[in-house]
Design goal:
By secondary structure, the chain is mainly α. It has one domain. It is built from 5 helices and no strands. The longest helix has 29 residues. The radius of gyration is 16 Å and the shape is elongated.
Length: 116
Amino acid sequence: MLVGLLAAAVSSATPTSPGDAYSQCIGQSSTNAEFAECGEVYLRRLEVALKMAWNKAYGSLDDKQSRSQLLQEQRAWIAFKDKSCRFWTNSSAGREGQALHFMAVAVQSSKRAFPI
């Protein structure tokens, strides 16, 4: 039931792709900083939707053990997401890495939407 609840909440609240707003932003951008800002806006939308879905799932649990386990899993996932995407922010990835960092985070966030 929990997986179904989260899948429904996320799929109704969050596009799994950046969508028209992102495409329009990219179309109007010409620098890496502008491209990165388009990605950051998309990530903020995705993070809000994921948080709403997680809160709904967490709130649906009625026992302390399940809540504790879901919270531990969420914390572990956040740590994994942050560490797995760190490569794109280092200097060897250059400015392109900075502009593409959002996509690495978006991919991980989209993957998270359905397992929880």
